[in-house]
């Protein structure tokens, strides 16, 4: 892969408290010029080392509400401050607000005509999918959760382009 490196990151958790609720998935859509790669860290494979390895060479990290949720959650759960690692962060939610686009990522996507393959899945259902996988050994639930997370990161790239 060649060229400037940017990444789009989204996490899934079992709730809103980093002290009590683990991160279940970290999805990272990495773009180096025309080359793209997608990395997902899942369950016990979510470690500080794995996250830093996945983000090696990333110059700019894009999130939606990551300033208030994803990055503090990662810092609290994993002890990794991505900004201290020299990665610049751009929270696309703020760019949306400046353009009068309010609400969560899914609402903004609808406003901008960004489509989803899984339009009926949301954060609450993502938590339920994780528990179905963990408690019921439901591999299809995990596959759906991973696809949902992947779609979030891919749509962040589309959102960024639409905001330009």
Automatic annotation (TrEMBL):
Organism annotation: Dehalogenimonas sp. 4OHTPN
Single annotated GO MF: nucleic acid binding
Family matches, as PANTHER family: EXONUCLEASE-LIKE PROTEIN, YPRB RIBONUCLEASE H-LIKE DOMAIN-CONTAINING PROTEIN
Family annotation (Pfam families): RNase_H_2 (PF13482)
Transmembrane domains' residue ranges: none
Gene3D superfamilies given in the database record: Ribonuclease H-like superfamily/Ribonuclease H
YprB ribonuclease H-like domain segment(s): 7-163
Protein name (Swiss-Prot/TrEMBL): Ribonuclease H-like domain-containing protein
Matches recorded under InterPro entries: RNaseH-like_sf, RNaseH_sf, YprB_RNase_H-like_dom
Domain of life: Bacteria
């Amino acid at each position: 892969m060649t060229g400037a490196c940017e990444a789009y990151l989204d996490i899934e958790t079992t709730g809103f408290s980093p002290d009590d609720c683990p991160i279940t998935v970290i999805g990272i859509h990495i773009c180096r010029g025309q080359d793209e790669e997608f990395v997902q860290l899942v369950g016990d494979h979510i470690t500080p080392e794995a996250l830093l390895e996945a983000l090696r060479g990333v110059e700019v990290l894009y999130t939606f509400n990551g300033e208030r949720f994803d990055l503090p959650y990662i810092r609290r759960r994993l002890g990794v401050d991505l900004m201290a690692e020299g990665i610049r962060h751009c929270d696309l939610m703020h760019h949306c607000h400046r353009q009068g686009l309010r609400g969560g990522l899914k609402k903004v996507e609808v406003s901008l005509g960004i489509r989803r393959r899984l339009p009926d899945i949301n954060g609450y259902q993502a938590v339920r999918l994780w528990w179905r996988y963990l408690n019921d050994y439901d591999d299809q639930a995990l596959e759906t959760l991973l696809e949902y997370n992947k779609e979030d990161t891919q749509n962040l790239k589309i959102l960024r382009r639409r905001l330009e």
